[in-house]
Amino acid sequence: MLILVHTQAQTPDSLKKPSPLDSSQPASTTAITPFTTPQPRLISTRTGQLTGTLIDGGLNKPVEFATVALYNPLTNKPIGGTTSDEQGKFVLNNVAPGTYRVVASFMGYETKTLDNITLRMGQPPLALGVISMRVDSRTLNEVVITSEKPLIEDKDDRMVYNAEKDLTNSGGTAMDVLKKVPLLTIDPDGTVQMKGSSSIKVLINGKPSSLMARSINEALQMIPSELIKSVEVITAPSAKYDSEGTAGVINIITKSKLQGITGGLTGTLGNRQNPLNGNLNMKREKLSLTAFGGGNWTNSYGRSENVRRNLRNGELFSVIEQSNAFSNEGKSVVGSLSVDYDLDSTNRLGVDVNLGGDNRTTYSTRDTRQSVDSDRAFRRYTTTNGENSHADMNVNYTRLFKRSTEQEYTFLAQYNQNDGLSGYRLTQFPLPETELINYREQNRNENRQNELTLQTDYSHPFSTTKQRLLEIGTKLIRRDVGSNFRLETSPDGSVNFRDDPRRANMFDYQQAVWSSYASFRMRTAKNWSINLGGRFEVTMIDADFKSTKTQFSDDYNNFLPNVSVSKRIGKSQRIRMNYSQRIQRPSIAFLNPYINSADPKNIQSGNPFLEPELAHLVEWAYSTYTKSGTTVNLMLFSRQTNNAIERVTTVDTTGVSTSTYRNIASNATYGTNLFGSVKPVKGWNLSGSVALNYNILNSPALRTSNRNWSYQLNMNTSVQLPKNTSLQANGSYRSRQILLQGQSAGYYYYGFSARKELKPHKITLTATFENPFRVYNIVSNQLTTATFLSEGTSYTMIRNIRLTANWRFGKMSAGPKREKKKIVNDDKKPA
Fold it and tell me: Which long-range contacts (CB under 8 A, 24 or more apart) does 308-315 make?
């Protein structure tokens, strides 16, 4: 909240003009005049009610928590009062019949006075209507006091993690930020999960990005943490959102625009990440501009070990042992430009452009030993290169209506493009010899993804107090995905490569999704809020997997309802109940039937005939907070996923394993999450969460089931010290997880940071130590089936030490900002 200290305002001109606030009386009766009004006539002791709504006359938005006082004009003393709610609405109860003065005030606004307000005996509640308040033009800009925003905020339909308040994020990436968000977990391989499920959608500023189309893991490592303002976790999205993501939606909000010209430069030196980036913000009258650009250099290394015992009729017939060591080097660049122009007070046009690319090189050494009738062993050296470029462009138009702050029409068009070029070269040596090359292989892969989206939305309030709101909209998404994968081999180890058409992977894939939605929200006088909605989606697929001569078309329709009911108890407590049905479409990585045999002992492929997952989600939540800063949020949920897509691995009689995806399982998760935040003393913040889930995986087709209890712990604490110095520590632990055919061990994370602000120079120094006392994160996993037993351990580099310097320039002032609508495509199951 921004609090402005200002001088006393003069009587606004609006107080000298007639006001039609009381439609039941002639204009002359309710005219707002100076204080020299006729003497009031108190005529009864029977009470009545006065209601009204306060809005900012310039921004056409509610004035929240303003003071509304009821005065006796004879004595000029207050005899009652209240405050406006989040919608600017206020109610004065138990008012005796008579004539009064109503005075509304809030810091930063001119005081609004309504004189000669008469309430008669037996009269129904007197509606004062919409009362416009003007910003005090003589506010003293030099005196600005900003209240401290909490690290975690609980809002009506989402939990918000304010990343800019967390010291340990400095110099990191979006991946580091998401590790500390309540309800989320990040596996050592970078897989993001919400409430135990990876079926989620990640958005940037409320819209999809081609960054996420290829790999969520890699995309999150390209986004600098300094660019992130907050992260929203939406566990039960309304019908307005696409119905993809059986667990929910993650929305990453980048830094907002500011008045004037501001900017900054940030550089980091570390053992794993070395980003350098800058930003510029400009606001001039009707034009707003935000620009960002930067690069990042990363490196990591690790190793893994795996032993697979192959079974035939329950008897052991072969053993395959593999060990792998790798190192990874990468660099990436990102840039964005956002321009908004206010055509007038009710029309806005905006354009966003995002560009970027990355280049990664991985070196790996894999040893394979197989014992059947005789032992065989070989070593493979592989060098993999990958280049990707992405571009997003979003054009949006917003039309506001003066009737209400929530009556709005938007039209949006978005185009995304992602182009990639990758390849690898491998050489194979027989063991124990390491000088004789007996096999070579190399490939080149060109891939593309283009996406066009058109969307229009309209919201219509049925009253100026926003007690009833209807939202409707429609969207069309058109995707075009293609790949051209060619591979050459040299079976004798020479440099005479020959094309292998059997292992080529060429395909064209088109998908169109058309959807329409309607959502109705209603609030009652007793602080109940009800949201009813439904979304109808039509999916059309046309695919040609040329390499496998597989062509197919598929169409399916889905109606997906949702219901949300919440109740505010007083001003500090809220309960919420939700039911929603969600869909998860398989992405191209799941559908592509290409057989990947880069590791000849472990073959992988997709399944073009997969159907979407459908999930039912029920959620109950309770939250409370106090003025001292204590916050508690308790959530109970149940998620049932039918037709679930799971990875299935089998081993043939030669000891070769094959992994693919099938719609064979039903998954259920029943869980609870408790989050709390408290300030024990001034300058010390302490927060944490505990999650407990019961998970059930069941596949009648495989006659396999698996279930367990799992839990997760998170803790975060920060201390503000003298001389602009602060310290912070955080940590987490996730217990063992189950798979359909096995399980994966738990893991933990911890980190420390210290920050020093050199305010005269506008420089901030931050030192971060993540897992300083261990090099690797060690995770073991087991798979158990009728055809094999597998045990493996991975060692992933986790120690991260970095020093970050940030320099700011320009003058900041928080200007009014109108939220800009973004396209949100969230309808694919991530790879």
Answer: 308/651, 308/657, 308/788, 308/789, 308/790, 309/788, 309/789, 309/790, 310/651, 310/655, 310/787, 310/788, 311/651, 311/786, 311/787, 311/788, 311/789, 312/653, 312/787, 314/786
Query: 189 — phi, psi (to 5°)?
Result: -85, 5
> What pTM was estimated for this model as a whole?
0.69
Choose among 390, 496, 407: nearest CA to 451: 390
Q: What is the DSSP pairing of strand 828-829 with strand 776-784?
A: unpaired
**DSSP 8-state assignment for residue 605:** -
For 589, the 3-state DSSP assignment is helix
| Spatial contact of 166 and 151, defined as CB atoms under 8 Å apart | yes
pLDDT of residue 213: 52
Q: Residue ranges of the chain with pLDDT lower than 70?
A: 1-46, 108, 136-149, 154-157, 167-169, 171-172, 185, 187-190, 195-197, 207-215, 217-219, 221-222, 245-247, 256-260, 372-374, 403-405, 463-466, 811-831
Instruction: Please report the pLDDT score of residue 249 as a whole number.
Output: 81
Q: Under DSSP, is residue 159 helix (H, G, I), strand (E, B) or coil?
A: strand
pLDDT at 745: 92
- Residue 505 Rama label (left phi>0; alpha psi -120 to 50; beta): beta
CA distances 825 to 205, 454, 735, Å, are: 12, 10, 32
Number of neighbours of residue 390 by Cβ within 10 angstroms: 24
Looking at residue 411, its pLDDT comes to 94
Contact criterion met (CB below 8 Å) for 468 and 459: no
Compute CA distances 696 → 660, 673, 706, 707, 737, whole Å: 21, 18, 6, 4, 11
Reduce the DSSP state of residue 829 to 3 states and report it. Answer: strand
Cα distance between residue 598 and residue 424, in whole Å? 10
Distance (Å, rounded) from C-alpha 382 to C-alpha 327?
11
